[in-house]
Amino acid sequence: MKILPLIGLAIASIIAISVFLSVILPPESNKNQIRVVFFANISHAAPIVGMENGYFSDQLGDTKIQSRVVDSGPAAIETLFANSADLAYVGPAPFVNGYVKSGGHGIKILSGAANNGASFVVQSDSEISKPSDLAGKKIAAPFVGNSQDVSLRNYLAENGLKPAEKGGNVIIYNIANAEITTIFSKKGIDAAWVPEPTATMLVENFGGKRLFQEQDIWPDKKFPSVLLVGRTEYVEKHPDIIKKWILANQKSIDWINQNPQQAESTFINFYKKHTGKTLNQNIVHTSFSTIEYTSKIDEKAISLFAQRAYSLGYLGRNGYNLDDIYANSMEIKQWQN
């Protein structure tokens, strides 16, 4: 387990490689195909339910859908720039990182998908109760540039703390959620800032204490956790397909909100097929209760994520511009209505 230094350089390298690949790889998309990536997280229930219930295939008709599960936001953004995906469900921080590092041309926001759904969990016997208690502690969050990573590092900065690689005394491990679960269970870390269902699994399976849900520390008590974003070239070439996808995305969200118990069962079945593991129904129910499924785009919160990422050095040193992050914003809003 290693502390990851030179974070900004690492993110820049990923984007640079992805942009290079997008140039040398031949286009794979055509008018009869769309490729989408998302996570096996409960906050990604919109694409999961939409795929499992057939809403996307019903809307798109003869258009072939290729779906793939990825581990992290940076990985999802990389698939777009490498031209191996056309759409991605991803958190706001990886989107902003990718958008800025690529010069603002390659990806656009199409819709919202979920708000909230992340928590800060400490060990059962932990004496951590306030920010100053985090000094000298080991804390885990998903991959560098992930939304939880940005939120954790911003929280430390706001409370006068620094990670070890920046000269401070808080050790941050950026690792996959599955590895976080394993290390937490062995008490190899003091706390974790993680999405659902990992947060609730740490509480229910390993006696962790949920110190707070992330929305509790946001100005409006909510934050965007999942956005639907698209590769600009594909979006501009196939607006009819994008329109149908957004309609199916909305139908999926509506069904989740109207049928919460069935939505939970759908996710459990999907998770079993994808991982071979069965999630406890109580864990899934608790996880769902922490999330708001919505297609609304919280522009202020996305801007705040960008400000935080920039202050952490994730967006370079020369400022950033988010003026063109939405795909034909007026038309998209019309589709959503």
Report on the architecture of this protein.
- The protein is built from 14 helices and eleven strands.
- The protein is an alpha/beta fold and 337 residues long.
- Helix content is 45%, strand content 18%.
- The protein has helices at 7-24, 45-52, 55-60, 73-81, 92-101, 147-158, 177-185, 198-206, 232-237, 239-258, 260-275, 281-289, 299-311, 329-336, and strands spanning 33-38, 64-69, 87-90, 107-116, 118-122, 138-141, 171-174, 191-195, 209-213, 224-231, 291-292.
- Helix 1 runs parallel beside helix 4, helix 2 crosses helix 11 (260-275) and helix 4 runs parallel beside helix 5.
- Strand 6, helix 6 and strand 7 form a beta-alpha-beta unit.
- The strands form two sheets. The protein has a six-stranded mixed beta sheet with strand order 2-1-3-10-4-11, sandwiched between helices. Strands 7-6-8-5-9 form a five-stranded mixed beta sheet, with helices on both faces.
- It is globular and about 55 Å long.
- The protein has two domains: 7-116 and 223-336, D-Maltodextrin-Binding Protein, domain 2 (3-Layer(aba) Sandwich), CATH 3.40.190.10; 118-217, D-Maltodextrin-Binding Protein, domain 2 (3-Layer(aba) Sandwich), CATH 3.40.190.10.
